[in-house]
Design a protein that fits this description.
The protein is an alpha+beta fold. It contains twelve helices and twelve strands. Strands 1, 2, 3, 4, 5, 8, 9, 10, 11 and 12 form a ten-stranded mixed sheet that branches. Strand 6 and strand 7 form a beta hairpin. It is globular and about 60 Å long. Belongs to the thiolase-like superfamily. Thiolase family.
């Protein structure tokens, strides 16, 4: 089977809700990163076999196969197709898997994977439109549990004995790391500025400098009156897009491109849909077992910070070095534009790997309904 490599990865800044990117249509925001790939690689977009695009809120601005309209908005040839994937928060990580599988199988040679979400324009949960997507049989199977992620985050905190103080300490550290990364220029090479009228959005907007346990103490619990999960230790509602160019080493060479990482192994798993957000734990075990790589050999982990209890439970179960987990901050500080987040995390991780000479990076993402993706990539020296 052929190898698949990522030769370029770009993202927009992650905009906060009703922030600098709120006025940009999802197709147009997607076009920004698609064209950035072309500019950075000098490829002819006509050679792209497919664009696989993640998006969760597929309604309104983001309906009718936003992946296809992203291609058209970018001005790419009409012959370039596009499709849209929804695996909840892991949508664009799954889009990357699909792109890789197509290349490894030999069916396609050059595929773009990525995703978009403009939550300022398509609010969280808008696609449900008052319906009950779970259905009576699924609800009955789990005793009428509402499949509410916030309640699941609370259940995780209880199961792993995570106090509000510990969760808030984690949240404050996320902001601290993100601020240090931004100030140190860690994001400069991966971010594509977005022009909105006379304004140029060039930096992630969600970082709250000086966040502390004390400053978070006044926030009320969001899901239970006596709960520990609140807005400050949860991921932010955000806007953003990201894209990655996937091909073979041979095709990359013929195009004059240098691979950044090779796709080593991928895994997806289901887990308890009531706890819902613990899937990254078995997904990590599964991908490392498949890869034949030890946890101790991995130099950086991206574990999506949907809620602080998610990476903290993952850390407790895996025993990973916490200094290697989300070293540049995570979704608590940098935001979580749902369908784009998998591609955003991968972009952030592989640039960090290249900057620091890290051989292995592992990304994992909890997802609504109790599924999770895990992806292991290896630096190409």
């Amino acid at each position: 089977m052929r190898e698949a490599v990522i030769v370029e990865a770009v993202r927009t800044p992650v905009g906060k809700r009703n922030g600098g990117l709120a006025g940009v249509h999802a197709a147009d925001l997607s076009a920004v990163v698609l064209n950035a790939l072309v500019e950075r690689t000098a490829i002819d977009p006509a050679i792209v076999d497919d664009v696989v695009w993640g998006c969760v809120g597929q309604v309104g601005d983001q309906s009718a196969n936003i992946g296809r309209y992203a291609v058209l908005a970018a001005g790419w040839p009409e012959t370039v197709p596009g499709s849209t994937v929804n695996r909840a928060c892991g949508s664009s990580q799954q889009a990357l898997d699909f792109a890789v599988f197509a290349v490894m199988s030999g069916q396609q040679d050059v595929v773009v994977a990525g995703g978009v979400e403009v939550m300022s324009r398509v609010p969280l949960g808008a696609a449900r439109a008052g319906g009950v997507p779970f259905g009576p049989k699924a609800l009955a199977r789990y005793d009428g549990f509402s499949f509410n992620q916030g309640i699941s985050a609370e259940l995780i905190a209880t199961k792993w004995g995570l106090t509000r103080t510990r969760l808030d300490e984690y949240a404050a550290r996320s902001h601290e790391r993100a601020a240090a990364a931004q100030d140190g220029g860690a994001f400069a090479a991966q971010i594509v500025p977005v022009a909105t009228g006379e304004t140029l959005v060039s930096a992630d907007e969600g970082i709250r400098r000086g966040t502390s346990v004390e400053s978070l103490a006044g926030l009320k619990p969001s899901f239970q009156d006596d709960g520990v999960i609140h807005a400050g230790n949860s991921s932010q509602i955000s806007d953003g897009a990201a894209a990655l160019l996937v091909t073979t080493p041979e095709k990359a060479h013929s195009l004059g491109l240098a691979p950044i990482v090779r796709f080593h192994s991928g895994a997806v798993t289901g887990s308890d849909p009531v706890l819902m957000l613990t899937g990254p734990i078995p997904a990590t075990e599964k991908v490392l077992r498949r890869a034949g790589v030890a946890l101790a050999d991995v130099g950086v982990f991206e574990v999506n910070e949907a809620f602080a209890s998610v990476p903290m439970a993952w850390l407790a179960e895996t025993g990973a070095d916490p200094t290697l987990v989300n070293p540049l901050g995570g979704a608590i500080a940098l935001g979580h534009p749902l369908g784009a987040s998998g591609a955003v995390l991968m972009t952030r991780m592989i640039h960090h790997m290249r900057d620091r000479g890290i051989r292995y990076g592992l990304q994992t993402m909890c997802e609504g309904g109790g599924t999770a993706n895990a992806t292991l990539v290896e630096l190409v020296s």
